[in-house]
């Protein structure tokens, strides 16, 4: 059985006030109160949130690099790298498309923009001009080429996760191919894992401060009153995302032999951190560590989580089609079935081209509407004021989608330690397996056979 990743041992029962999720909840409540009662001071707290997110981004590249390289270098069958990647991409493509379809269907059922009767000529196109310009700079070809870094070291001084992933896979494969000659390098990298993850634990102690600053800024700048006029859209998006996670992803979890609610409880501190900072990246290092601790093979975690952060954006996809049809309904723009299919197809492509871009949800929406001219791009001004409030839900849905994907792909590839998963989620251990060992596994193959 694989040992869990190195981490600092903690007491079995910490006092409640020392538990991270309790501290983050308190910080969110205090930050929201400050932003509501003293908006000026709340806006001034923005640097706290920004500083924490920068701290986390600082450690993402080393965490991804070490996890992937040590995972691949320890593989005995290198073809499994391509197999895991192919399975992950198949999963991402299916559920990302499903999320787009769900957003489209909900918009037709709920009709959040119906009755607003907005004249597009009355909208101010300059309010969203910056986002439109950014969307024009994104092309699928440009996105693919941008995955290849300028130098071997440049990914570590940038913020493109896919470049780090690209370099990590190549370097891990190289170490595995050279075999014994690469053992000293592999041993050194494995020794680095413990201090790097210890650094993650140290940075997470600042999470409550970051959540406090981020939520105080959001409430102080935009105010809760901005939600009133567009509460139907916001509510529809939150309910749709919740149902997607509980029903669709929950069904996938049940089929895979675990509970979505248990998984959410296991990741409660990270979920609250994402809620407070409106950024799923703020919890990426912790997610990778916890997924490995929950029995997912290191190589699977290293490949699926960083790739999912770019290609498996369920919350962003729901938002895109729901918001696009909201604008069409609000401006009384009739869309034919073919135009809606075109909108869906364009969104499938543009959602990949915006991967890794800050504010990707809004920018991707601009890119999609620019290709479907029937829906006025200026209509994005209608949701500009509430986009920040929907970004929390986008980020949480994206985060849960990637957590589920990691476990499912690990199980699919026979690289899931079921006992470790059940221990992490606090569920009873399953009965001993009666299935025979995987005939495809060699004598030294450490893959686990699952019975479910």
3D architecture notes:
By secondary structure, the protein is mainly α. The protein has one domain (17-425): Proton glutamate symport protein (Orthogonal Bundle), CATH 1.10.3860. The protein has 19 helices and no strands. It has helices spanning 20-37, 39-44, 46-73, 79-110, 129-136, 140-146, 161-178, 183-204, 207-222, 231-256, 260-266, 268-277, 284-293, 298-311, 314-330, 337-353, 360-371, 387-412, 418-425. Helix 3 (46-73) crosses helix 9, helix 4 packs parallel to helix 14 and helix 15 packs antiparallel against helix 18. The chain is globular. Mean pLDDT is 80; it is low at 6-11, 353-358 and 433-452.
Low-confidence stretches: 6-11, 353-358, 433-452
**Percent range for helical residues?**
55-70%
Order of helices and strands: HHHHHHHHHHHHHHHHHHH
What is the name of the CATH superfamily? Sodium:dicarboxylate symporter
Instruction: Give the count of helical stretches.
Output: 19
CATH class: Mainly Alpha
Number of domains: 1
The CATH topology assignment is Proton glutamate symport protein
Structural class: mainly alpha
**Overall body shape:** globular
Quick structural gist:
The protein is an all-alpha fold and 452 residues long.
Layout: helices, strands, pairs:
Elements: H1 20-37, H2 39-44, H3 46-73, H4 79-110, H5 129-136, H6 140-146, H7 161-178, H8 183-204, H9 207-222, H10 231-256, H11 260-266, H12 268-277, H13 284-293, H14 298-311, H15 314-330, H16 337-353, H17 360-371, H18 387-412, H19 418-425
